Amino acid sequence: MNIWNRSVIKTIALVISLFSAVSMTAQxxxxxxxxxxxxxxxxxxxxxxxxxTPGIAGGLGARYNFNNRICLKFSGNYGKIKADDANSxxxxxxxxxxxxxxxxxxxxxxxxxxxLPYIHGSPDYFFTPYIFGGISAFYFNPKAELDGTYYELxxxxxxxxxxxxEYYTVTGAINYGIGMKVDLSxxxxxxxxxxxxxxxTDYLDDVSTVYPDKDxxxxxxxxVALKLSDRSIIEPGLNDGQLSEEGRQRGNSxxxxxYIFAGIGILYYFGDLKCPELSRPGGRxx
Length: 286
Description:
The protein has 286 residues and is mainly β. It has helices at 3-23, 91-96, 214-220, 223-229, and strands at residues 27-42, 55-65, 70-84, 99-114, 127-140, 143-146, 149-152, 170-183, 188-199, 258-269, 272-273. It has a single domain (29-279), classed as Beta Barrel (Porin). It is elongated.
């Protein structure tokens, strides 16, 4: 048996031992409650990680406690994301002059690990930081404003997509993040959480590849689609109007888009302690 295999076996044994140890003093049960906060977008229209334009976000979560360390949480979430090249510090991006906004409807499942033992109602183990990771499925639909009217960008085929071959507006993501749980009482607790969704799409913002052939786009769609595809600004001394030539870079397809939720939730605990002796008077805070 090589060293790598022995290390893997030792790691697995350690994880099993840890899980068994925390299960001996475990509590089990569901927590359910809403959260409210903000949402952010990172991608081709926000390459500088600008967090100055948050959108409103919120949702409902349900967490099952396997023990005082391991939990599984399901949530349904809403967020508003947006970005505008006009706010960029990058000269090229300001001249590109694209913008978007979108609603995101998100369904997530995440496995959580508490850094400290967490026991509802305990005077000693009433808080813990935690980390989580999991999967998400979400819906998005980028829009942009032109002459006072908002248009759905997907159906415009702004990068030359043929009709029927546009990107999907329902896709998946890997979610991960950190949080803090704090008891208010035996039944109620506050959760502070920030989590990112690394998506499987590069079209949250409708920007990914290159500028299309303008004549082809005009034939396939309409003049509005052409205007939404190319909103570049001609500025003497900085560009000669060729920024949006066919095949020129419009986005970076090598980096998928990301959105972030950050907020505060209040949860109600329905479960009971698995070991009654841990929750006798003096152990709970009613």
